[in-house]
Design goal:
This is TetR family transcriptional regulator. Helix content is 69%, strand content 0%. By secondary structure, the chain is mainly alpha-helical.
Length: 204
Amino acid sequence: MARPREFDEEKVLLKAVEQFWEHGYEATSIRDLATAMGLTTASVYNAFGDKRAVYRRALDFYVERSFGDRVGRFEQKPPREAIGAFFDEIIDRSLNDAKRRGCMLVNSALEVAPHDPEFQRVVAHVLVEVEAFFRRCIEAGQADETISRDQAADDLARTLLGTLLGIRVLARTRPEKDLLEGLIKPIFTLLEPRAERKPYNALV
């Protein structure tokens, strides 16, 4: 009979997330992980596998507790409010990230995915889910006339996705409130129905 694990899996995965998130995949060794997780290297291998396997578990854990949690909290809001709350939280997290770690998923897209087909698929799948969240909000807003129909829902969703990625990358080197908020202001002008639309300079 296998012995029960003598550690809290959620807590040690959180430690793995923090290690990879702050230092990146390549700069993190299995020994670094063991130290961060409070385990022996043998225990890490036995419980999770090699470094690549730990990274996959850590990335899944991160995504579920960041994007998954955020969508769950915001999707029940009115469409424009849901999109606004999503970006407000992203910008707030970016500005308050003292270590400038950015987004672990975006970091994975830049560091790991280009060299690893499996992680390329994992990251792409999550980005498709993010785009789908934006599309659902936009379609709902266009249906109730709180979001403009001047642009196709698909195009607006992709624009929001690109803006999100831009915010997360820029925040690593320029975590400036005016810069990050300035990226999203023109997008929200596009979302506004014509009857509510104001000149862009009135938004600043």
